[in-house]
């Protein structure tokens, strides 16, 4: 993990890092869903940090089909915020699709993804940009040293998901978050990944590149409540695992092999007792084996079905999202 205490603030050498001597352009992607009450404070916090750097910047805010006044708050702020770019999706496609929309439209030399509820502290942006521009890191990840006010159930579920994900894929995402900075080459590599089943955090981990980490404590939400319900979290976990590993399919092979060995052993024992003339009724054993094998078969079919569903989604080649409004890109004024 990088020692951020030695990072200079504001960025001293950023002005010499961009193309042709220009200061680099930093894009900040903010996915939003029903965050109308948070928008003014979010923009104030972001611009207060970004304007202290020597970088040009743009803020790409994506309204993921909000049903409150999120889009209205963004459009009201548009004339008063230089470098503000807005994308409105035609419906709620989910956070991963909203991030995808921002990644495809952002034009920065470095791109930062940050949540719109202010649980990710914008103050870390200066440290991220410094480590990127001066330290030569291509990915700067913010990892959670404290998870904030989460329920015991949510903590348990998150911990279980990350352990299963590590076992099945080999990627340890436990302390990581979506709050990260990526160099343009990382963004371009990500954009070449054309799958429809998106898991942003895992995709960035898969890409590799030179990376470092800085820690942060998750802040309280600026307003409202979290949008992640249990069914949404469960669907997200299944998509993440099946999109990044075929190990679950190998479990079926392992279970089949185990039951085959069990059948051989029980069959040999049964024949042995039969020839000895001591075979007894095994009704309970038969019922138990049928329940075990039936349960294993149903689980196996369910796992195969999940992978077939992922394939079905991919082969349709539908767009990841549909944007109903894209505004702000005609404004050529970007940052400082």
CATH superfamily of the largest domain: Spore Coat Polysaccharide Biosynthesis Protein SpsA, Chain A
So what's the CATH class of the largest domain? Alpha Beta
Looking at CATH, which topology of the largest domain would you report? Spore Coat Polysaccharide Biosynthesis Protein SpsA, Chain A
What are the secondary-structure elements, in order, as H or E?
Answer: EHEHEHEHEHEHHEHHHE
**Shape category:** elongated
Distance between the termini: 30 Å
Strand content: 5-15%
Secondary structure category:
alpha/beta
Number of strands: 8
- Radius of gyration, whole Å: 25 Å
Percent range of helical residues: 40-55%
Total helical segments: 10
**What is the total number of structural domains?**
2
Low-confidence stretches: 3-16
Largest sheet composition: 8 strands, mixed
